[in-house]
Design a protein that fits this description.
single chain, six-stranded mixed sheet, about 25% strand, four-stranded antiparallel sheet, about 30% helix, Rossmann fold, alpha/beta
């Protein structure tokens, strides 16, 4: 479903965001990208929908390389759930959910909001599926709680039945119970529709509970790739504790010695942990 082939991204000022990420996410998997702030999680997700362009390597969705010539065809097949919801606060719940259909609409219908009756019925069904009632359809999003707004965001993401859903820190601004409820909802909706999910998180306990697989980043490099049950103290130390004095991925990278040299690739350890070369 999704493949990263030596994906690297370095900004114009020399900042390294991704340091050659290679991994495959099979269809139907709920894969959590874990890591501290600045580890490169959001950047990795943004390379999939073209919001960030790699300076090296290739991202493929269903075998198609992501690039300027393919984005218009691929984007309708990728749902997106945002950390800050990215909803139109003054618009209604129904209008926000319907916006999820815009990537597949011709411009002459999209600009004036000429949604089909089938799209409107589907939006209503999705609102119900995410646990909101008919009474919410005409309410302004600004009147909803954070948890309710993220439910609207999930409904919007599934308007086109995408085979791939990207969730960028979808519960970062929610309380623990609401976070649990939202991730439960996301996983259930994905499984019912056979969708693949790539979800970035900060919270280890949520990753262990909901992920089929955890991929952990530190400074833009994969340092763990394995089952949630294998993410123990050693993996935690690699992701959050080791090289604590090193700059994060969104800072300048003045210390090339920290990067694994070409002759010393990451070596696998038990449980999917990767040991970076000194």
């Amino acid at each position: 479903m999704l493949r990263f082939e030596s994906v690297a991204l370095r900004h114009a000022d020399g900042t390294r965001a991704l340091g050659g990420v290679s991994l495959e996410v099979p269809a139907g998997q709920f894969c959590v990208v874990l890591g501290a702030s600045g580890a490169g999680k959001s950047t990795l997700l943004r390379t999939v929908n073209g919001l960030a362009r790699p300076t090296g390597g290739t991202v493929r969705v269903e075998g198609t390389a992501i690039g300027p010539k393919t984005l218009s065809r691929i984007r309708p097949r990728i749902g997106m759930i945002h950390q800050q919801f990215n909803l139109v606060a003054r618009s209604t719940v129904a209008e926000n959910v319907l916006c999820g259909a815009l990537p597949a609409m011709p411009l002459w219908r999209a600009l004036p909001g000429l949604f089909t009756e089938a799209a409107r019925r589907k939006a209503c069904a999705l609102v119900e599926a995410v646990g909101l009632g008919e009474e919410h359809l005409l309410r302004r999003v600004s009147e909803l709680s954070g948890g309710q707004q993220q439910r609207v965001g999930i409904a919007r993401a599934f308007m086109l039945d995408p085979p791939l859903v990207l969730a960028d820190e979808p519960v970062a601004s929610l309380d623990p119970q609401t976070s649990h409820d939202v991730l439960s909802l996301l996983r259930r909706q994905a499984r019912e529709r056979g969708a693949t999910v790539l979800c970035s998180l900060h919270q280890l306990e949520l990753a262990r509970e909901f992920a089929d697989r955890i991929v952990a980043l530190r400074r833009g490099v994969v340092v763990f790739d394995g089952a949630p049950r294998a993410f123990g103290a050693q993996a935690f130390d690699a992701v959050y504790g080791r090289h604590a004095d090193a700059p994060p991925a969104d800072a300048a990278d003045p210390a090339p010695a920290w990067q694994p040299p070409p002759s010393s690739p990451p070596q696998p350890l038990p449980g999917g942990l990767l040991e970076l070369a000194p």
